[in-house]
Every structure is written in C-alpha cells, then in structure tokens.
C-alpha cells in the first residue's frame, strides 16, 4: 500500500511555526497548485487547489528560515486526516499533507536568498532523506521483466489499478 503525495506549487503564506512544550517544532503552511484545461467551448480555464501542509522538527525549522509567501516549492509527504470537536462541540475533519521532504524551487520575485540563486537545485535545500546515502533522492531500481511467457498477463493481475 502506498500513501505518497508529491506537490509542486506556490506558498500561499509564510509558515506558521509553533514550539510545543516537549520541544518539538511544527510548521504549517498552504500550497496552491494550478491545473489548466480547455473547457467544452475551447476556452482555457485555470483551477487552483489549496493544500494544507504540516512539517515537523528540523524540517519545520528549515521551513521557518527558507519559505516565504509566493515561493515555489517541491514537496513529498503523505496524506493524513484528523478529526476533532470545535468549541461548539461540532465534529470537524481536516485533510493535510504531512511533508517528509521539501525543496525550494524558486521565488516569485527574483530575490536570491542567502547565498544561493533561489532556484532548483540549491545546496541550501539538500537534506538527506531517511537513509544515509549521499544522494539527494533515492534512485528507483527498475523492475525485472516478468519471466512468465505462458501467453497471459498473469504478472499484471496483482497491479492495484
């Protein structure tokens, strides 16, 4: 099973950073993604989706330092759902992306940031993923072709879609 989200979009606001009693740091911000398409009459339409993003610990501290409203960002994470009761006792539910990695791609305005060009890739954005290799992202290993040549798509039967 896979729960993976990849977004490329623009920051809707500066990160809101909180430091919890246990010392953990959490940052929340929104990311806008755009989809452009032609409608039935042939006119171009643009649809913007807003995504609530949460980052924790050192990633939250990095977000506080580097992310600014309007900046373009690439992020990876997982989709989560939370439920709670509001002040009136109503049940509420929200969907968020809990990011495990992000990289600043560029800025809306040409500002360069501290020591970098502000564009992808930047050495400021390098964060080792959960493994200890020196690469900035894991390199996928190609799957071996199916060896079953008995005339069927048996190897395709276990695909999730």
Mind explaining what this structure looks like?
This protein has 161 residues and is mainly beta. The chain is 6% helix and 42% strand. The protein has a five-stranded mixed barrel. Strand 2 and strand 3 (25-38) form a beta hairpin. The longest helix has 10 residues, at 57-66.
Q: Poorly predicted ranges (pLDDT <50, ≥5 residues)? A: 109-154
Helix-strand sequence: EEEEHEE
* Number of separate helices: 1
Give the full name of the CATH homologous superfamily of the domain at 1-34 and 46-112 and 120-126: Nucleic acid-binding proteins
How far is it from the N-terminal to the C-terminal residue, by CA?
Answer: 12 Å
- Identify the overall geometry: globular
Helix content: under 10%
Q: What do the pLDDT scores average to?
A: 78
Report the β-strand fraction as a percent range. Answer: 35-45%
**Largest β sheet strand count, sense and barrel closure:** 5 strands, mixed, barrel
Reported by name, the CATH topology of the domain at 1-34 and 46-112 and 120-126 is OB fold (Dihydrolipoamide Acetyltransferase, E2P)
CATH secondary-structure class of the domain at 1-34 and 46-112 and 120-126: Mainly Beta
Rg, Cα atoms, Å: 20 Å
Quaternary class: single chain
Extended strand count: 6
| Secondary-structure class | mainly beta
Named at the architecture level, the CATH assignment of the domain at 1-34 and 46-112 and 120-126 is Beta Barrel
What order do the strands of the largest sheet run in, or round the barrel if closed?
A: 1-3-4-6-5
């Amino acid at each position: 099973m896979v729960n993976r989200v990849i977004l490329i979009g623009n920051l809707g606001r500066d990160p809101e950073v909180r430091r919890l009693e246990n010392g953990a740091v959490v940052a929340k911000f929104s990311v806008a993604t755009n989809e452009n398409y032609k409608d039935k009459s042939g006119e171009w339409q643009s649809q913007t989706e807003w995504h609530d993003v949460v980052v924790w610990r050192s990633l939250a501290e990095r977000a506080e330092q580097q992310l600014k409203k309007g900046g373009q960002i690439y992020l990876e994470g997982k989709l989560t759902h939370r439920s709670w009761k509001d002040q009136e006792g109503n049940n509420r539910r929200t969907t968020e992306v809990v990011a495990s990695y992000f990289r600043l791609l560029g800025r809306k305005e040409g500002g360069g940031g501290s020591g970098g060009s502000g564009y992808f890739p930047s050495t400021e954005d390098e964060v080792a993923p959960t493994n200890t290799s020196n690469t900035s992202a894991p390199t996928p290993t190609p799957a071996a072709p199916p060896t079953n040549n008995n005339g069927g798509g048996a190897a395709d039967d276990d695909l999730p879609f």
